[in-house]
Amino acid sequence: MPDNLGTSPDDVQFRFRDDEMVDHAAVTVDAFLDQSNAAAVRIEPGDDARELLPHLGRIKLVEVNFPGFMDGRGYSSARALREAGYDGEIRAVGEVLIDQLAIMRRCGFDAFAPDNELDTADAERAFGLWDNVYQKTTDGRAPIWQKRHG
Amino acid sequence: MYKYDSYDQEMVDTRVAEFRDQTRRRLEGKITEDQFKPLRLQNGLYLQLHAYMLRVAVPYGTLNSTQMHALADIADKYDRGYGHFTTRQNIQYNWIKLEEAPDLLADLAKVEMHAIQTSGNCIRNISSDQYAGAAADELVDPRPYAELLRQWSSFHPEFLHLPRKFKICVIASDTDRAAMRLHDIGIQIVKNDAGEIGCAFYVGGGMGRTPMVAPLIREFVPLDQLITYSEACLRVYNRYGRRDNKYKARIKILVHEMGKDEYARQVEEEFAHLLEQGIEPPLAELERIKPYFADPAFKTDLTEKADRSDDKFARWVDSNCMAHKAPGYVAVTISLKPVGGIPGDASTEQMHVMAELAKEYSFDECRVTHAQNIVLPHVEIGRLNELYGKLAEADLATANIDHIGDIIACPGLDYCSLANARSIPVAQKISQRFADSGKGEMLGQLKLKISGCINACGHHHAGHIGILGVDKKGTENYQLLLGGSEAEDTSLAKITGPGFDEAGIVDAVEKAADVYLAQREEGERFLDTYRRIGMDPFKEALYA
User: Fold this and answer.
1) Cβ of A149 and B161 within 8 Å?
2) Percentage of the residues of chain B whose pLDDT score is greater than 90
3) B159 contacts on A by Cβ (under 8 Å)
4) What is the pTM of this model?
5) How many C-beta neighbours within 10 Å does residue B242 have?
6) Is the ipTM here above 0.85?
7) Strand partners, B170
8) How distant is the Cα of A64 from the closest Cα of chain B, in angstroms?
């Protein structure tokens, strides 16, 4: 596997942040841990996102790859980063589909670079579908139990 | 029972809208079948041998009469006039059209029901003790905890793409009527030495091709950490559960390969981290849910004796009624196992009757059991004769609960695309044989469970007698197993030896039953005798 891989700003179809995008490609977790200057890293499903936690200060972009949309490890990876306080970009890449967008947002993803471009109208409907949520995550939304009890 | 507030209602309504849109995109060809499949599965829709099957969730098995009536109406409107109650306390319809599924889900939502996460690689419907709130031996009613878990697990964004399906069961008595330790997570509500209520977590049980009894992972989780601890259990599984082989992807394999101590250690580590995250609903939420499960207004000074002058009625009382915590009441199990019938099936008319009887005799409540029967949880003993008469009119008064005729069976090759052999005809023949000979009643408690393939939906590993249908060079063949139990004395059944053909397996069951009748000692059930004398006497009779 090459050290440099990943998506470019042009590949990003949806983004929910205003800062400038990192302009260099992401490196693998192993490569990232071996070198000190990379600011973009790509997590594969089998990687342990917690290895990045000591280095969050210098990371601006984490790409989480979904080689197949049924492999859900990336959701836990994203949450682990957000729960540790990481506030840079987390970009979902690979097989990213309409019906996973909302739950990816809930787990901390704030940018999406699908392999195949998504229908914009369908995607916007998906992002806005759920007015309420049952669980607390780091996305800042008040879960239903919190609304019930103030 | 639980009543949706506006939030709960909005969630199921939104889900219907979402699925309607997904179905539209599928029918328009905007998404592929591979992409659509997990979406329909997480709305309960399977593609079976002949048509789509829809599995409707019955959370912790509890229904009111309005809901049971609605299930009957759905059987009429979208199916062929019947439904099939399942070992997961749910109901399935076998003849559904994809185009109509969104409307069906909308009909369900009108009565606070849904089919959310009844299939797919996610947390499934939470199961529980069918006698919750009625059993004399329970510590508390387990259902408020199950409801709390239902809300947490519904649409959980991190756990909708797990390595494999995930089943949780909650009970609150030492007697296990829900096969708790054969679940991915089995929770028993317990009291600790300080007198506090909390949860014992058993993780990594299951049936399927590699049956395992769940080990105890943590003796006591405080109630105000229940969701957090559950989330930790799931996260460790999501991270490390095998995804290279679907047959090794259940959490039981992970716990087995990693070792329960290492799994527990990792859960503790994640738990400590998650406690900092404040993801736990406040105890006030549990307190909000609890009153929905408060005791109904039981009458006092009721008679504790029924008129037993009718022999058939007396036999039915003895086999189908269970002691109740309130004096003058019993919990009644309606057998969906008529002699020679299809286990767990009920017609539209029967569902309407059961709904009416639940309303008239049981405070508007009924339950689905994992043994595929229906319970009226709170019936006055003094009204049993009357109730029995009405059940008999609807062919619902079979007296065989936990007897050999009360067979658990999967749909088998008659419906299921995974099956290797038919289950239903075997169940029908065994039921008929033992009813005709009168031996069924002599045998007492004998739990017989039939699966049509090694996925074990018919719980054959947990049968006192289990039957497993396999494909042997193109013909259906049935293996016999003995000595399983899904109860608090959980054990896994062992195969007797070479399998039998369809007629042969019925004879084999009778031979095994005869060994028991010849060798039993006072008070022994089939299972007790098997445990005392072992496999050999049975083998001798079977293969002589």
Assistant:
1) no
2) 98
3) 72, 75
4) 0.96
5) 16
6) yes
7) B128, B187
8) 14
